[in-house]
């Protein structure tokens, strides 16, 4: 199991991660823009170059991030523009942590298979902390 930090931006995610890359070194493990999203997400043309997901290895951890889009819940606010991301080894671990940590909180996205190849869910716990849990699905 690994705990990582996920940061949310309002259009300047790429700039921020270039800054972090210059500080920490290394290469991005993944960069995905909203242009790569499925068509049913209806991303406006002027937002397709925004970052949907980016990850930068930092030691044994991963610093991850994304930009908001107009069709989402709105731009992030300083102070609540992060989430704790948990990578686990099975669907069962996802379901267990999701059930325990979301108790009394607000589910944003229930556990489900995603188009990017993960079993994923996210929520805000009863203390106001945002969480994500993910299991990378085996590739056939």
What does this structure look like?
This protein is an alpha+beta fold and 140 residues long. It has one domain: 2,3-Dihydroxybiphenyl 1,2-Dioxygenase, domain 1, CATH 3.10.180.10. Helices cover 17% and strands 39% of the residues. It has helices spanning 13-24, 91-102; strands at 2-9, 30-33, 51-58, 61-67, 82-87, 106-113, 118-124, 130-136. An 8-stranded mixed sheet has the order 2-3-4-1-5-8-7-6, covered by helices on one side. A hairpin with a 4-residue loop joins strand 6 (106-113) and strand 7 (118-124). The radius of gyration is 15 Å and the shape is globular. The mean pLDDT is 91.
Outline of this structure?
The chain is an alpha+beta fold. The chain has one domain (2-136): 2,3-Dihydroxybiphenyl 1,2-Dioxygenase, domain 1 (Roll), CATH 3.10.180.10. It has helices at residues 13-24, 91-102; strands at 2-9, 30-33, 51-58, 61-67, 82-87, 106-113, 118-124, 130-136.
